[in-house]
């Protein structure tokens, strides 16, 4: 009868299983029927939902705690009921089964324990320990023993009211310090976003710097945006500062920098801003006999002196005589430059009279 009462879908499943296991369909149906009978015999009543089973388990745990809380510790109660020690403490606090704190820490007086009872809700364990004069873990142990569980959301309503009042005039860190105990800026930000309040940007429309000075520093005087913010003490992120410069139409891209920007930056990094002055550098070159001598006077290298001479387009006074004679050339880009006569002759000899000379690597590409 069980075999005849099966639906077509069940018969198809049995036939597929029979092909895999080499067992007939009639035998598989008989085995399924027997397994169903075993399940019916094992069930001692109507099936319970997970919610009902959880309530029944909690009821048994509460009953066990009420009968054994004086004889057993929280750890033993947790092992017997299958719950964690923190859950056992919560259940004891609900049942008003409070242990004697003197058994946990003999260093605390009854007055200290009363202070913990009265101030644990609005003070941290560190603040309580500092007021009592003990270690913070002693306070935490006694507080848990008394069943005084701190609620991290106890000051949520006070925080919401402060955010609604000050979110337009104070940042997240300042609002968090208004609470006692204080709250981190991340918590303030999370609550502020949950209230639907936007990001706080203070003084965004009134920049505290001179636009003309900023333009000159970023495009000519060798400062990057980050260095200029550090120089003027501007509390912006780099992206926020870039947005402000775009709104004020101040050029800030590396492609907007003038040629003297590199010279000014290199001189400032060396600590000799006079190197960026072409008149001063030309006079110094005429007073000395070589690059190393001038470099030793300034405390730098001859390579750095040659960098400024080349970038400023100064005449090299040390390229004199027949062997060091120079030839004035013109690059296809239109720039005039000098090359040693010996190098030009060697190039003509190697390439012929139609060889070209370039002012730099960019032009020859």
Task: Write a structural description.
This protein has 365 residues and is mainly alpha-helical. The protein has helices at residues 8-21, 25-42, 50-68, 74-81, 85-94, 110-119, 125-132, 136-145, 156-166, 172-177, 185-194, 211-219, 225-232, 238-247, 260-270, 278-287, 291-298, 302-311, 341-351, 361-364, and strands spanning 326-330, 336-340. Strands 1-2 form a two-stranded antiparallel sheet. Strand 1 (326-330) and strand 2 form a beta hairpin. The longest helix is centred in the N-terminal third of the chain and has 19 residues, at 50-68. The radius of gyration is 42 Å and the shape is elongated. Mean pLDDT is 77; it is low at 202-206.
> What level of helicity do the residues show?
55-70%
**Helix vs. strand class:** mainly alpha
> What overall form do the CA principal axes indicate?
elongated
Proportion of residues in extended strands? under 5%
Q: Main beta sheet, described?
A: 2 strands, antiparallel
- H-E order: HHHHHHHHHHHHHHHHHHEEHH
Distance between the termini: 92 Å
Count of β-strands: 2
Count of individual domains: 6
Q: Give the number of helices.
A: 20
Provide the gyration radius in Å: 42 Å
Sequence stretches where pLDDT stays below 50 over 5 or more residues:
202-206
Overall pLDDT metric: 77
* Main sheet: strand order: 1-2
Brief summary of the model shown:
Helix content is 56%, strand content 3%. With 365 residues, it is mostly helical.
Question: Strands, helices and their partners?
Answer:
Layout: H1 8-21, H2 25-42, H3 50-68, H4 74-81, H5 85-94, H6 110-119, H7 125-132, H8 136-145, H9 156-166, H10 172-177, H11 185-194, H12 211-219, H13 225-232, H14 238-247, H15 260-270, H16 278-287, H17 291-298, H18 302-311, E1 326-330, E2 336-340, H19 341-351, H20 361-364
Antiparallel strand pairs: 1-2
């Amino acid at each position: 009868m069980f075999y005849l009462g099966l639906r077509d879908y069940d018969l198809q499943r049995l036939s597929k299983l029979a092909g895999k296991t080499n067992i007939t369909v009639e035998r598989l149906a008989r085995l399924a029927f027997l397994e169903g009978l075993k399940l019916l015999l094992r069930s001692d009543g109507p099936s319970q939902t997970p919610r009902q089973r959880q309530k029944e388990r909690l009821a048994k745990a509460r009953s066990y705690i009420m009968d054994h809380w004086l004889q057993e510790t929280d750890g033993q109660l947790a092992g017997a009921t299958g719950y964690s020690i923190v859950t056992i403490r919560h259940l004891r606090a609900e049942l008003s089964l409070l242990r004697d704190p003197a058994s946990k820490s003999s260093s605390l007086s009854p007055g200290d324990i009363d202070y913990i009872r009265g101030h644990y809700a609005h003070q941290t364990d560190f603040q309580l320990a500092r007021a009592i004069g003990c270690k913070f873990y002693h306070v935490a142990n006694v507080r848990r023993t008394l069943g005084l569980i701190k609620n991290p959301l106890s000051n949520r309503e006070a925080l919401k009211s402060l955010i609604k009042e000050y979110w337009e005039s104070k940042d997240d860190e300042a609002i968090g310090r208004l609470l006692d105990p204080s709250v981190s800026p991340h918590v303030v930000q999370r609550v502020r976003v949950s209230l639907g309040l936007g990001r706080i940007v203070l003084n965004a429309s009134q920049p505290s710097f001179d636009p003309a000075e900023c333009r000159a520093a970023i495009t000519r005087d060798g400062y990057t945006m980050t260095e200029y913010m550090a120089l003027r003490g501007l509390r912006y992120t780099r992206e926020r500062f870039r947005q402000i410069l775009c709104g004020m139409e101040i050029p800030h891209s590396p492609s907007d920098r003038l040629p003297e920007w590199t010279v000014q930056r290199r001189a400032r990094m060396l600590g000799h801003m006079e190197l960026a002055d072409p008149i001063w550098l030309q006079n110094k070159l005429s007073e000395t006999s070589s690059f190393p001598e001038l470099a030793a006077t300034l405390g730098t290298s001859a390579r750095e002196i040659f960098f400024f001479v080349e970038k400023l387009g100064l005449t090299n006074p040390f390229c004199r005589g027949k062997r060091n004679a120079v030839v004035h050339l013109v690059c296809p880009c239109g720039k005039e430059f000098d090359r040693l006569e010996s190098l030009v002759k060697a190039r003509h000899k190697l390439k012929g009279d139609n060889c070209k000379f370039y002012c730099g690597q960019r032009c020859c590409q």
